[in-house]
Amino acid sequence: MNSDKVLDAKGLACPMPIVKTKKAINELQSGEVLEVHATDKGAKADLIAWSKSGGHELLQSTEENGVLQFWIKKG
Amino acid sequence: MSVIMMTAKEVTQRVFDKKELFILDVRNEDAFQDWKIEGQNFEYLNIPYFDLLDGVEDILHQIPINQEVLVVCAKEGSSIMVAEMLSDAGRDVSYLQGGMKAWSEYLEPVKVGDLKDGGAIYQFVRIGKGCLSYMVVSNGEAAIIDSTRMADVYTAFADGIGAKITNVFDTHLHADHISGGRTIAARTNATYWLPPKDATEVIFEYQPLEDGNSVTIGNTTINIEALYSPGHTIGSTSFVVDEKYLLSGDILFIDSIGRPDLAGLAEDWVGDLRETLYKRYRELSEELIVLPAHFMIIEELNDDGSVAKKLGTLFAENHGLNITDEEEFRNMVTGNLPPQPNAYQEIRETNMGKITPDEEQRREMEIGPNRCAVR
Prior knowledge:
heterodimer, A: Translation Initiation Factor IF3, 4 strands, about 30% helix, B: alpha/beta, Oxidized Rhodanese, domain 1, globular
């Protein structure tokens, strides 16, 4: 999936993946897509909930070799 | 203002003492709805930490000033962040060390009573998850029943009181938590007992625990009598310890009874459950003190934090023991089942030795409340 920006949040523990995601998405235009890589298992549920509460759209999420990947479209 | 670290032990003491505590839980809403720190006089506010990244000003009016405030999250990181923000705003707040992960794993040992020969029986209250396990001690020997996966806690406790663990039991194959029984037995060279009917698929050596077995701990003074009591699982076995304590496993709780469906056979086992509760248990002395393997609600705790009540009292007060009509009983236990515990199939397979998840995976599998009862 295409993205406009990639955020590497691997190795970071909660709350940093969300803190950095929020910061990164602030730098995007509405409709642009942020790709996030994280290893903190808790990031998944939190990113889903955060996207919803922030009006963003979680387009897709995958997990491969312990790395969680998310594609979030800025609302 | 300062941020204070509060340990799971300190929170447990507040639960036991029925103290007031205001909990600001900053996990996401689903996690909070599913499972939280329970206390009779605790108040709650759930606001996910990610809604507070721009500041806490908007919620300050919802945080009491004259009350102890504890910020809680999954692992601790977010709660420290929020606690520091509140502190910067002039509030005195604490955060829970290790978060809900630590809360899930914390065990508080409570002495339930003395035994005839001077030994004692201890209940290990897993306050965050509602699991109860036991240590019977006599003359320098100890038996452990229904241990959690936190094996170190039991071995350290036994060391501390100068007792050698000689026998380890599980009343049944658990579906809600990972047993530490095998680990403790291997570490201490103790005998590990399991009911064979629950162990048909296990891939390790164990000592079969059969109806009428007697095991002596210490100087022939304590008998652990196995009492076959199927219903929660087909092998479920109860123990009578020192002719005084009935360890009822997941068959009978203080305010509820065991659910028969976690091995997938509710319809088959409901009859066994009824037979155990309404016939086999009825033949026992009403003076026996029931020590179950779980509590479901915080109100089941006695003032000292223990979970224990006379069998006679339960016959009078426990709804699940007072349904005369068999059909109604059947409907209650099969038609009224709560959601199944998190990852219960994987937990069963782990307890059979079929899969060996790593520490982090085990932790994840056990997240959430136990759900072994029907009310």
